[in-house]
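Batch job 17 of 40 flagged for manual review because the log was empty.
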Amino acid sequence: MANLTDIQQAIQKANLAGWLLYDFRGQNPIALHVARLESSGTRRWFLWIPAQGQPHWLIHAIEGNTFRQVSPDMIGTTEKYVSWQELSQKIGRMTHSSGDEGPSDGATRRIAMEYSPFGAIPYVSKVDAGIKEMVEEATGAEIVSSADLVQLVQAVLTPEQVTSHKQAAQICLDAKDLAFSFVRESLLAGHSISEYDVQSMLMEHFAKNQMDVDHPPIVAVNANAADPHYSPDANHHSPIQEGDMLLMDIFARQSNSRQDCFGDVTWTAFCGKEVPQKVQAVFRAVAASRDRAVSFIQEKLDNGEIVHGYEVDEASRQILSDAGYKEGILHRTGHSLGPAVHFNGVNIDNLETQDKRTLIPGVLFTVEPGIYLPELNFDNGPTAKGLGIRSEINCFMHADRVEVTTLPLQTELPALLA
């Protein structure tokens, strides 16, 4: 986690007066995380981190006991309020403390809060419109999004976390190999097998390796795989048969600590002897889209340029569109990854949202383009089987390079019975 010095350097670089954290009864877990509070108490509170100087707390007069245990570098000074009128007045005074007189050129002071214009980044939209209005009136400042500050504080991983991720990723890749072998051997032996059977086998593998999962892995065939968040269960699943297309999305983390990080990979295979041409064409487009995301990031870094999540998504999805599969795109190219499968760092997204955050050193994310064609008749049979192909890798940002942490890449679509 970034310390106070790191945060204030980022505030200064962004030309902000400071970062105003606010919470009421745990509605803003980001504020709790920065302050390292287990509980938020029962009244509204604010923490002001100025561009320079020490932090300032504004808490209700009856809540002193709640704020005894905070992050050591966030102790600062504390002021109390009783009435709502007093709260508003003290917010205005507090945010002009530490010698901050605002811009000298007449420009409006800018204060960061957990707000996202037009809800573009819902992961940081934790401050309601009423509080934003109150702060604007009390301070006369422009409220801007704290999204990049949140990423710095929450999504930059420690070396230990990166190690835990790589270990988890390897176990996920091993699980993929075991599952493909299980399917192959079952079909060759003439045994019946279902999506749920494979999912159960994967869960046993994770239990054996003392892994946590966010939810059971996705195992899907044909049209089921064309629903990106489909998942089988004991009552709803399909058989896996010769000639089917199989997709597996496998994710887990070690269970040593809540700070251990997930690995998250998706592979596909054909449950037959020869991959149909229609399927090969889709896979090759997806793989090219995946690889373009990585090469685009590296090209920007090599040129000394900042890389934003939205532009990586655009470069990756353009490959799918150019290949004629625009209608089969249902989701963004990738998401932040860490101690949660969907974490609070930059997403590779200009589809579902416009993520203008930068890919800063220390963040981890997925690249997972997919094409989903539920009506595709890929085997020229009498009925459409449907198809979903996704290829997911994990990437870690260094200062000068992007590292793929889930090697080897899937470069070919295997025919399991060949």
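Reviewer: the log was empty due to a logging misconfiguration, but the result itself is present. Residues 159-188 form the longest helix (30 residues). Unflagging and moving on to job 18.
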